[in-house]
C-alpha cells in the first residue's frame, strides 16, 4: 500500500488484511523506503497518495514489474500518455487509474449512458450533506455530460414551462437539467430519472460512508494481473455485456 | 350535483352512485332548473362549476337549507365573507369550500407544517408531466410557504455552497429551496425532504390520475351535515390530532 | 396492423398515425382479408392477435416478404423453431417476437443482470394495484431468476435474521427475496435493490398506464428491416454496449 | 449526565457541550458519587444507564428536585406507576421517559397514525443492515399496530391475490402487511405506504448513524422544566397540532 497512513490507505490496509484471498505485504508512506515493495515481493500496489508523488511511484512500480491500482487524482491526458509509455515498455504489467471506485457510482453512470437514447425526458437530482461547496456535484455533472453525448441528434426534453421562478428548473448541463439538494442527515446520493409515454425508469445511488471505495479497489486488485497495459476507469474491469 | 356534465361532475355523479351509503338525487348543469335540487329533497350539493355562477348557486342552496361541498375556484376573501354571512343566517347549514380535495396532498401539507420545526434542513422537489406551464407547481409553492411560516425564528437551512451553476440549488420560496422536475411519463408528484443529524424524513405524494379528488369529496359529503357554518379547506374535516 | 380492433391494436394504429416518419397502411382484424397487407405494400406488420391465429399470420407475412413485430403471447420453443425456419427460407425478412415492449422494464432487467455480480446483497420489491391475482408478479420472478443466474458461484445474501414473523423476509425466488406490495392507487412498479459496504444501488421502474408498450413497438418497427432473421425479446434491438 | 462513559452518554456529553444555550455540569458513571449532580446545581439530568440502576437514579434526582430525560429501557407499567408517584410528590419536577428519541421516527409514527383512516390500503416496508436479528423491526411492528388501531372498524386492505409464493405478501401484523428487507450498505430505514383511488402517500424515515437520538434528547432537555409530572414518549413535547 502506497500512502498507507492516510485515511484511505489505512482503510485499505485493513480491508486487504480481512480478505481471505489476499495477503497484505507492506505499507509505504512519506519517508519510508519504496524498495520495501520489491523486497516483500508485492504483486499489486495500491496507490492513494498525492499528485506530486504519484508519477514517481508509478515509474518505480512499473519498472519493477509490479501491477498498480491507483486512486490518486490529478491525471491529465499528458500524464496518462506517459504512464501508457511506461507500461508498454513492460509487457505483462497492468495499471488501473480510476477517479471513482464506488461500484454503484460507476454502474449508475454506465446504466444512465445505456438508457439515455430510449426515453423522451431525462433529469438528474443529486443530494448531498450541506457542507459540500460545489453544486452540482462532479459526479452529477459528469453523468449529465455522458447522457447528453449519448442523446446527440435526439430532440431535447419536452418542456412546456412558460412561467418559472429563477432556478426552479435546475441547472443546465449540456441540455440536461440537474438539481442539487443540500440537506443535513444526507451523505452522497444521486437519482437519474428517465421518462417516456406511461413509464419512468430511475437509477438511484446512495453512498452513506466514506468506505464505499473498498469493494471497487479490492475488485481491481484481484483482476489487474489479468489486465496488462493501462486501463482508465473501473468500468472496463466490470466486463459489462 | 351542480356542474353535472363537466368532467369532474360526471366523475362525481358516478362515484356517488357507486357509494352504498349515499343516494344520487339529481344533476344540474347550465340551462337546467336549479329548483330540481329542492324538489328532489337533496341534502348535500356538490358544486364544481365556474367562478361566474358559483355565488348564485351558493346563495340558492344555502337559502334552501341544503349543505354544500364546493370545489369551484376563485374564492377571494370578499367572496368567503359573503358566504359566511349567508350561512350565519341559516343556522345548521354547512358549507365546505376547498381548493384541493386530494387527501394525500392535504395530509402532505399538514405533515410538512408539523415537521417543519424539528429539522435543520428542508427542501421540496415537485415532479410533473412536461405539459405543465408553471414551475414550481402551486401546491409546491404553497407547501414551501407553510413550512417557512412554521420555521419563523429558526436559523436558515445550513448550506456551504460556494460554487454553483445557475439554478442548481433550485428556486427560493420564502427561504425554502424548491426544485421542479418535468418528465414524460409522470403525472403529479411531490417530495418534502427534512434532515437533521443522522436522519432524514421524506413525505412523498403521488397522484397518477385526475380522479384523486373523489375520496376527498365523498368524505366531505358524508361529514358536512355535522359541520354547520363555513369551513375552508379539507383539513378541518380530517380531525387530525 | 394485425388485430387492429383490439385495445392494443387501436392504440398502435393511433401511435403509428401520429409518428411523422411512419405511414399507416391498413388494419386487419378477424373477418378481414389479410391480403390487404400485401395490396397496400405494407413493409412492417405489427401483430397483437391471439395464439390461435398468430402462426398463420406469420406464415403469410413472411412468405410475402413483410417484416413483423409480434407482441402476441404463447410462443413455445417449438413455435419459435418453426418461425425461424420460415424466416431462414426468406432471407432479408426480419421478425421480432417479444413478451414485453415496455423499454423501462426491459432495461431494468438488463441492468439488474449486469449489476448482480458486484454487490453482496440484492432484493426485489414489486408494487401493484390490489386487483392483481398473482404474487410476485411475473416480471419480478423473471428478474429474480436472471439475477440468481448471474450470481451463480457467489455467496448468498448475508442475513443474520434469527427471529422472524412468517412472510416478513419475503418470497424466495432462487435465493433472491422478493416482496409484493398491493396498494390502491398504484399501477405497476418494481425496485431492485443492490447493496454492498457503504453504498446501495436501486433500479426502479414505474409504469402508470397501459400504453407503455407504444415506444418499444415503434422502436422495433423502425429497426426490424435492418434486422433480418428471427429476434426474440426487445433487448437485442437496444444495442446496449 | 448519568451513564456518562457509555457510548450514548459520551455522545450526549459532547452534544450538550457544543450547544450554546446549555451548560454541561457533570458526568456520573458507575462508581461515581451521584451527589455530584446536586453539588453542581444540575437542573436537568440525562439518564442513559441500565434497567438495574435507573430506578434508584430516578428516586434520587426527583427527590432532589432535578428534572430528568431518560432513555434507559425496561420501563414496565409498574415502574412507570412508581415514577409517577414520586413526581406527584414533588410538584414542579418534570420527568420524560422515551423509548425512541429519533425525531424522524417519532414523527413517522405520528403521521402514519393520522393518515391511517383516510386510505383504502396501507403497507409497511422496513429496510435494515443484514446484521439485524429480528424481522420485522420493533419500530415497524409498533407502527403497524398503531395504524391497525386507528383503522378499527374500517374494511381491510383490498387484495385480490389468489396465487402467491410463501412470504411474497409479507408478515401480517394486526392485518397490516409488513415487509423486511436486509441489505448490506443500509442502516435503518422505513416506508409507510398509503393508497387510495388515484393517489398514494409515502412517509419515509432514514436513519444513517447511531447519533440520530441527539436532537431529540436536546429538545427534551430544553423543554422538560416546563413539563412538570411524568411524560412518556417524545411525542407530547413536539406540540403537534
From TrEMBL, chains A, B, C, D:
A GO term for molecular function: 4-hydroxy-tetrahydrodipicolinate reductase
Span of domain Dihydrodipicolinate reductase N-terminal: 3-101
Record EC number: 1.17.1.8
Catalytic site: 128, 132
Pathway this chain belongs to: Amino-acid biosynthesis; L-lysine biosynthesis via DAP pathway; (S)-tetrahydrodipicolinate from L-aspartate: step 4/4
Predominant subcellular localization, coarse grouping: cytoplasm
Binding positions (NAD(+)): 3-8, 32, 71-73, 98-101
Domain Dihydrodipicolinate reductase C-terminal: 104-236
Compartments where located: Cytoplasm
InterPro entries according to UniProt: DapB_C, DapB_N, DapB_N_CS, DHDPR_bac, NAD(P)-bd_dom_sf
Pfam families in the record: DapB_C (PF05173), DapB_N (PF01113)
UniProt-annotated binding residues for (S)-2,3,4,5-tetrahydrodipicolinate: 129, 138-139
Catalytic activity reported: (S)-2,3,4,5-tetrahydrodipicolinate + NAD(+) + H2O = (2S,4S)-4-hydroxy-2,3,4,5-tetrahydrodipicolinate + NADH + H(+); (S)-2,3,4,5-tetrahydrodipicolinate + NADP(+) + H2O = (2S,4S)-4-hydroxy-2,3,4,5-tetrahydrodipicolinate + NADPH + H(+)
Domain of life: Bacteria
The UniProt record lists the keyword Cytoplasm: yes
Gene Ontology biological process: diaminopimelate biosynthetic process; lysine biosynthetic process via diaminopimelate
GO CC, alphabetical: cytosol
UniProt KW keywords: Amino-acid biosynthesis, Cytoplasm, Diaminopimelate biosynthesis, Lysine biosynthesis, NAD, NADP, Oxidoreductase
Quaternary assembly: Homotetramer.
PANTHER family: 4-HYDROXY-TETRAHYDRODIPICOLINATE REDUCTASE 1, CHLOROPLASTIC-RELATED, DIHYDRODIPICOLINATE REDUCTASE
Free-text function comment from the UniProt entry: Catalyzes the conversion of 4-hydroxy-tetrahydrodipicolinate (HTPA) to tetrahydrodipicolinate.
Entry similarity comment: Belongs to the DapB family.
UniProt protein name: 4-hydroxy-tetrahydrodipicolinate reductase
Organism phylogeny: Bacteria, Bacillati, Actinomycetota, Actinomycetes, Mycobacteriales
Amino acid at each position: 500500500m502506497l500512502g498507507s497512513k492516510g485515511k484511505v490507505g489505512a482503510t485499505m490496509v485493513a480491508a486487504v488484511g480481512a480478505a481471505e484471498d489476499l495477503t497484505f505485504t507492506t505499507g509505504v508512506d512519506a519517508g519510508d523506503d519504496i524498495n520495501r515493495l520489491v523486497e516483500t515481493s508485492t504483486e499489486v500496489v495500491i496507490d492513494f497518495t498525492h499528485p506530486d508523488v504519484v508519477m514517481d511511484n508509478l515509474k518505480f512500480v512499473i519498472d519493477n514489474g509490479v501491477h498498480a491500482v491507483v486512486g490518486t487524482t490529478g491525471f491529465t491526458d499528458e500524464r496518462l500518455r506517459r504512464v501508457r509509455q511506461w507500461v508498454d515498455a513492460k509487457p505483462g504489467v497492468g495499471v488501473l487509474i480510476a477517479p471513482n471506485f464506488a461500484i454503484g457510482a460507476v454502474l449508475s453512470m454506465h446504466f444512465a449512458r445505456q438508457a439515455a437514447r430510449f426515453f423522451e425526458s431525462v433529469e438528474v437530482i443529486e443530494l448531498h450533506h450541506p457542507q459540500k461547496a460545489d453544486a452540482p456535484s462532479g459526479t452529477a455533472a459528469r453523468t449529465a455530460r455522458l447522457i447528453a453525448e449519448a442523446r446527440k441528434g435526439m430532440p431535447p426534453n419536452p418542456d412546456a414551462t412558460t412561467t418559472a421562478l429563477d432556478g426552479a428548473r435546475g441547472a443546465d448541463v449540456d441540455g440536461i437539467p440537474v438539481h442539487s439538494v443540500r440537506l443535513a442527515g444526507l451523505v452522497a446520493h444521486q437519482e437519474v430519472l428517465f421518462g417516456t409515454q406511461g413509464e419512468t425508469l430511475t437509477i438511484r445511488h446512495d453512498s452513506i460512508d466514506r468506505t464505499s471505495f473498498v469493494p471497487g479497489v479490492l475488485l481491481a486488485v484481484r483482476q489487474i494481473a489479468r489486465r496488462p497495459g493501462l486501463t482508465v476507469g473501473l468500468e472496463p474491469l466490470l466486463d459489462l455485456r
